[in-house]
Amino acid sequence: MRQYLRNTWDGIYTAFVGMKITFKHLFTRAVTIQYPEVKVPMVDRARNRLYVNIEDCIGCEQCSKACPVSCITIDTVKSTPTDPVGTTSNGKKKALWVTQFDIDIAKCCFCQLCVFPCPTECIKMTSVYEYSEFERESLIYKFASLSEAESAEKKANYEKFEAEKAAAKAAAAAKPADQNKTE
After folding, report:
1. Half-sphere exposure (CA, 13 Å, Cβ side) for 129?
2. pLDDT (tens digit, 9 = 90+) per residue, 77-93?
3. CB 70 within 8 A of CB 108
4. Contact 78, 118 (CB under 8 A)
5. Is residue 42 part of a domain?
6. Structural domain of residue 58, as residue ranges?
């Protein structure tokens, strides 16, 4: 009998505690936000979508090396002396063509570790946090400014330059050997 009364009292007590919490929230204003029309302001240090200013990228691959999940893919080609790449916005001279700069946001863990090692500060986190897609391939963002044809042309130019350089070096090495034979 004693246990029965104790259980009854515990049931009534917990119901009153629950109703106290319910009545407390019953008379406060709602904080519901109508999401698509009204958006929550983001804090200053929020980590969201990555953005790359490809004009400032020197192709050093520091961001790719710092990424713990390997979501950044960078491919570069050296420029030839007759094909200058240009300079960044802070005056640093570029030596590489960035033929591919892809970020797979589906893999990204938004740790911001890729932002800090960049010497030209071309990669940064933005305040954009809405980027849902229907296809997974749509989550691969391509930042390279060169088309595939231009990238192939730059690679061919560099290979041609290297072949000419190797041929000139071989000719220079063969020239003293020919002089030794004639003497």
Report:
1. 13
2. 888 888 778 888 888 78
3. no
4. no
5. no
6. 50-161
Residues 94/79, Cβ–Cβ less than 8 Å: yes
d(CA 171, CA 88): 38
User: Strand pairing partners for 97?
Assistant: 77
Which pLDDT band holds residue 72 (cuts at 50, 70, 90)? very high
Number of domains in the chain: 1
Residue that wins the pLDDT comparison between 10 and 88: 10
The token duo for 109 is 């863990």
φ, ψ for residue 172 (rounded to 5)? -70, -35
> 72 CB contacts (<8 Å, ≥6 apart)?
63, 64, 101, 102, 103, 104, 114
- Token representation of residue 178: 């020919």
DSSP state of 135: S
The answer to which of 27-31, 59-63, 96-100, 158-162 has the lowest mean pLDDT is 27-31
CA-wise closest residue to 59 among 90, 83, 92:
92
The share of the chain scoring above pLDDT 90, in percent, equals 37
Torsion of CA 33, 39, 40, 41, to 10 degrees: -150
Tokens encoding 69 = 């999940």
Q: Is residue 84 part of a domain?
A: yes
Are the beta carbons of 125 and 89 closer than 8 angstroms? no
